[in-house]
Amino acid sequence: MSVPATQFATPDRFHPADGTGTLIRPLAFGGQAGWLHTPAGPLRGEAAVLICAPPGRDGRCGHRPLRILAERLAGAGYPVLRFDLHGVGDSLDPTDPEADVLPDWLAGVAAAAEALRAATDTRRLVVLGLRLGASLAASVEIGADGMVLLAPVASGRQWLRELKLAGAMSRTGSLEGAADLESQGLRLSSASVAGLGQLDLARLEHAPPQALVVAHNPTVGPVAERLADLGVEVSACDFAGYDALFEDTHSQQTPSLVFDQVLAWMADRFPGRLAQDVTALHIGAEPVALHPPGCIEHPVHFGPGLNGVLCLPDEVASDGRAVIFCNTSAEPRAGVGRFAVEASRSLASHGVASLRFDFAGIGDSDGPDQTHVYSVSRQSDLSDAVTLLAAEGFPEVALASVCSGSFHTLRALAADPRVGGVFSVSGKLVWREGESVRPDMRDEGRATQVYVSGLKDPQTWRRLLTGKIDVAAVLKTLWARLLGRLAAGLHQADGRALREGLAEAADRGARIHLLMGLDDASYDELQAHFGAGARKLLAMPGASIHVEPRLDHGLARAASRRIAIAELLNFMGAA
């Protein structure tokens, strides 16, 4: 399979569809993937801005808002580069995944600064970071003229404690006694835990001459004090909207007031403007690429402002098979724990190409923000993705999805005869108008059969008698599921439409594989619409189900991702 050419976006093709007057183009440097936002007018600011995003859940929640901030800064005349650290998003993995990642991340910030200077020929540089990204920005000496710290992590040790607590509460943490750390899709080696634990902004030894510190809690106070001790001219304000920013990827609110303050600070401290050659910004360029082991990855721009990454086998010749990965909820395309990235590269090593992309209004794609996870149809987006791959010579296309993404891919399978199969993990099957998608309204319980089986275990009764089981919470969960089954019976048209669509797809030869665990209610919903044991689905040719007890719902644990990738390889005949 030859390297595609016509679909690759040159800088002028990355114009956003909303006409903001800026150019967006991908960059790759030192194994890191980034996006450069450039003012399209005849003037640009004398300073360029480097945005350092954090890893983990903070980075996934902050991805779209930081893109919005980059566009606002570029619209105000400042060239901006935002990028993924090694092991984050679309960037390459660190050379040694078990080594301390902190030196690698600090070097990555320095490399990004050099890439921004080279791309814009800038005279002055402002470094801006969110959460741990702010801590990294403050900890590396890159000759910046200014610094913006948005809710910086003041203490690495405290941050690690927060990660452990979040991992325990979400049931995505490391096993008891493990030296490494897992939490909500982020894994840190034991060496990284030790290294990051030494991070302490109260002991900074250098800083740019000017800084804006946006504080979200009292722990940030010593950071501002230390900057002042270093002779920095410090401006400080509270982080209005901090909690709303990190509520969830699909429900978070962009902190517009904070971004207003950032723009005002930039205008006050870096007001100078320089002439720029606008025509030079529209000159076509060779497609940028990253080279993970065994494959090559190119950014692609297609449809009405959709952006993604095409991953092609390198040494192994592709035989025309390809997989499309789409968003889970409003998570960026890399997925929770970078499932889509890891799966793409594993597929490529077996000769299977893939496209991972963002739906409109999510991640890096253009479109209105705050789109509903379910009520906004994604059929057009998925159709455009299939068309892209078909144009590049991939006649056999399957869709891979997790949770809410499955809601859309299963419907695309029914609607688009070009789709040859769907691989679904923890799939959400039916959504009815009025159902809440708020985080605090989710069914966080395990599968009903887990509770039923537990009644046969003496340990369960011991825990019950000693008050270690929240009986009220369990009963509330089971009652809600009973009501859900009754609702499925009363609104049979929803489930019937899905069953009929999948049956038609199966009759034309499409394949369906559902992978789910017992750590959530996915299997309960499947049985509510397809009968006990999902018999109505299994009666369809080419349909299969695997219930894996160890699987967590969103593939936040590395062990769950390994299971899902192995199943996907088998589904694609690449195992």
Walk me through this protein's architecture.
With 575 residues, the chain is of the alpha/beta class. It is 36% helix and 20% strand. The chain has 3 domains: 14-153 and 208-282, Alpha/Beta hydrolase fold, catalytic domain (Rossmann fold); 156-198, no CATH class; 295-443 and 492-571, Rossmann fold (3-Layer(aba) Sandwich), CATH 3.40.50.1820. The protein has 18 helices and 20 strands. It has an 8-stranded mixed sheet, sandwiched between helices. Helix 9 packs across helix 18 (558-571), helix 11 (404-415) packs across helix 15 (492-507) and helix 14 (471-490) packs parallel to helix 16 (522-530). The protein is globular. The two termini are 20 Å apart. The relative contact order is 0.10.
